[in-house]
TrEMBL record:
Span of domain BFD-like [2Fe-2S]-binding: 2-49
Name listed for the protein in its UniProt record: Bacterioferritin-associated ferredoxin
Highest taxon above the source species: Bacteria
Cofactor dependence: [2Fe-2S] cluster
Family note: Belongs to the Bfd family.
Organism: Pseudomonas helleri
Molecular function, one GO term: metal ion binding
Classification via CDD domains: Fer2_BFD (cd19945)
UniProtKB keywords: 2Fe-2S, Electron transport, Iron, Iron-sulfur, Metal-binding, Transport
C-alpha cells in the first residue's frame, strides 16, 4: 500500500529499508524520502516502522541468539 503519495513510498519500501539496515524512523525517512514533502503520511510511516522493528526484535528473540541483517 502507498504510505506517501507525494514521493511514491510504499509500506514495502519502508520494510525493505529496515531489512537493509535502517534502525529508526529518521534513517528510514532519509533512505526513502517518506514524509519529506507535505508530511501527512508521517504517522502512518512511523507506525509501519514501529511494527516492522517490533516484529524483527520478536523474531530475533525467538532465535535465542542475536542475528545480524546485512545488505549483500
Amino acid at each position: 500500500m502507498y504510505v506517501c503519495l507525494c514521493t511514491g513510498v510504499t509500506d514495502g519500501k519502508i520494510r525493505d529499508a529496515i531489512y537493509e539496515g535502517c534502525c529508526s524512523y529518521r534513517e528510514v525517512r532519509e533512505a526513502t524520502g517518506v514524509a519529506s514533502q507535505c508530511g501527512k503520511c508521517a504517522c502512518l510511516a512511523k507506525q509501519v516502522v514501529r511494527e516492522t522493528l517490533t516484529s524483527l526484535q520478536a523474531s530475533q528473540a525467538a532465535l535465542g541468539f542475536p542475528a545480524e541483517f546485512s545488505a549483500a
